[in-house]
Amino acid sequence: MFAKQPGGPGGVGEAVPAEEAQPIYEAAVQALHAGRTVFTCGVPVGFTVGGGMNLGGRVTQLNTWDAAPLIEAIEGLGWRLQSSNHVWAQTEQTDARAGIARTRGLTVAHMLFRRAG
After folding, report:
1. Entry pTM
2. Which of 2, 13, 80, 85 could disulfide-pair with 7, CB 3.0 to 4.6 Å?
3. Mean pLDDT throughout 26-40?
4. Alpha-carbon span 34 to 73, nearest angstrom
5. Within the chain, what is the greatest distance between any pair of CA atoms?
6. Which domain holds residue 41?
7. For residues 22 and 91, what is the distance between their CA atoms, to the nearest angstrom?
8. Beta partners for 43?
9. Within-domain flag for 58
10. Rounded alpha-carbon distances, angstroms, from residue 52 to 55, 67, 91, 101
């Protein structure tokens, strides 16, 4: 269902990878069939890799994924997106010896859906 798609308006990037999107979609289906009125999920929408301070002008790389196709698919089931908040979480940091420090992290969109109607 979630094939590789081009990014959305504004150059957001490609859609959330299928291996991340499919389990979230399936959980929305299960929640709907279970009669739940609220569905929540965490969707990875960005990945950063960057250098620490004072490391000779290292640039942080930011890769983003467009969550719109996943949101549209979940809303197509009968859910409506109520709110979304984004949190950045550090996933790795290397040692700063020899001026080579790297920090990696994910930006996760925490979404709350309610049943439509």
Report:
1. 0.78
2. 13
3. 98
4. 18
5. 59
6. 18-115
7. 22
8. 109
9. yes
10. 6, 29, 14, 6
Q: What is the rounded distance in angstroms from the CA atom of residue 26 to the CA atom of residue 63?
A: 25
Inside any domain, residue 94: yes
Question: How many other CB atoms are found less than 10 A from the CB of residue 18?
Answer: 15
pLDDT for residue 8: 44
Kindly state whether residue 108 falls inside one of the protein's structural domains. yes
Give me the residue label for tokens 């979609």. 25
Give how far Cα 90 sits from Cα of 33, 46, 50, 77, 93, Å. 35, 12, 11, 33, 8
Q: pLDDT tens for residues 46-81?
A: 988 876 555 555 667 888 999 999 999 999 999 999
- How many structural domains compose the chain? 1
* Eight-class DSSP state of 37: S
Q: Assess whether pLDDT exceeds 50 at residue 109.
A: yes
Is residue 13 situated within a structural domain? Answer: no
Can you tell me which residue has the tokens 């999107």?
21
Q: How many Å apart are CA 44 and CA 94, to the nearest integer?
A: 22
Report which residue type is found at 42.
G
CB 15, CB 65: distance < 8 Å:
yes
